[in-house]
Amino acid sequence: MANRFHNYIGGEWVAGADWAPNRNPSDLQDVIGEYAQADAAQANAAIAAASAAFRQWSVSSVQDRSSILDKAGSDILARREEIGRLLAREEGKTLPEAIGETVRAGHIFKFFAGEALRLSGEKLPSVRPGVDVEITREPLGVVGLITPWNFPIAIPAWKIAPALAFGNTVVFKPAQWTPGCAFALAEILAAAGLPPGVFNLVAGSGSVVGEAIVSHPSVAGISFTGSVATGRAIARKAIDRMARIQLEMGSKNPLVVLDDADVGTAVNVAVQGAYYSTGQRCTASSRLIVTGGIHDRFVAALTEKLRTLRVDNALAPGTEIGPVVEQPQLDQDLDYIGQREGARLVAGGERLDRATEGYYLSPALFVDATNDMRISREEIFGPVACVIRADGYDDALTLANDTDTGLSAGIVTTSLKHASHFKRHAEAGMVMVNLPTAGVDYHVPFGGRKGSSYGPREQGRYAAEFYTTVKTAYVAP
Ligand code: NDP
Q1: Active-site residue among 34, 115, 248, 379?
Q2: Nearest CA to ligand 1 atom 11
Q3: Theoretical Cys-Cys bridge with 254: which of 199, 202, 400, 444, CB 3.0 to 4.6 Å?
Q4: 8 A C-beta contact, residue 42 and residue 12
């Protein structure tokens, strides 16, 4: 029988109400393990454990919190190869990408080890003579953290680390398709010295475990990353009971390529932004908005480059694009690829056979797309991008902003004037000039506008906005 991985509730490893296999998308015969599936009763037990642990943890020494987070960060970094391999095996991103994500998670824990010590408030004179006003930040309480499959260690890290740093207790539900990294993280946190109940892992389905967390009156805040549809459903329920929410959701990110761009740079930025990590990134630049003077050269060079990209087993040396994560996601990608809507498919979009059976798909490029087509408006979440022709910079900016979402936006140009204008006027939470629309450093805010995000930003100093609540106190002599 495959290895079984238990949930972590109240400081104990607890067998699941059920079990689910975790399969390798690069090799469907490879079962990584059987992972516990919690039911609603176990989710409630985890919430009760977190509630019981909150009183002490919320006033624990910042030195203790900092040391525990620092140790967790060191352990993640020390195990980077092993956890990176697990991540590549369960999610399908290439081994270098997976090790890079693991290193990122380690750095996030170390950053928040420092933030635990740096949490500051304010002291102001009152308008009443002789009286001072203090503004302090206190932990929120029990926080429910619900994460997607596409960054199975970095996203949990950037929620768990600030939650614990600022004195909250955690109930964590990872995505069902990638539970392996979540269990590795739980193991590391359990060994780092957290008191029982401060951190709890309850893997299982969103409709059971996720729902239990979202609707439980003891969960003071919910930080969610995932699709727009799920985020909206969570928001409605959470607001109904006045819980705090932070939602990071999908996006249809634009990359503008202007006539004055260097074609080589534009192709590199587009390939990395749209296709790396198999295009399964919320920041993926799946809309390539290209002005007329460079359009044909850019399309020719990008098409050529896509043909040379090596799509293969995530663990194989030299693989540039790993498999799609799971059959339903592959079906979704192929469904969009099949609906041409008048656009022309000039590269990829085909199932590929490799030495092992997996969900391999060649990177697909559409040209002659318009911004009203479904492939231009809906997040596909696979290695699929479309080129939309623009009539100069102003038109390109208008097209870039003509979307319901606004996580990241990029531009490739050698014009300082256009780069500066785009930075200011792109309706997105993050803007990249001559860089791929990938994630941002761990010490700066991550998040979007419009339908992409709701609530305070994640990461960096800004994380305190969600994970703390402000108190205003008066002191008279
Ligand atoms: P989903 O919204 O399907 O799932 C996200 C998480 O929510 C999973 O853990 C899921 O559980 C859980 N969930 C599902 N239904 C409910 C529910 N009713 N109540 C509570 N929790 C629920 O997204 P995906 O996992 O498919 O992730 C892909 C999406 O995530 C993309 O749209 C992508 O853009 C977005 N994303 C956004 C990022 C950002 O920061 N903006 C970063 C990364 C991804 P289960 O495992 O059962 O499905």
Answers
A1: 248
A2: 206
A3: 400
A4: no
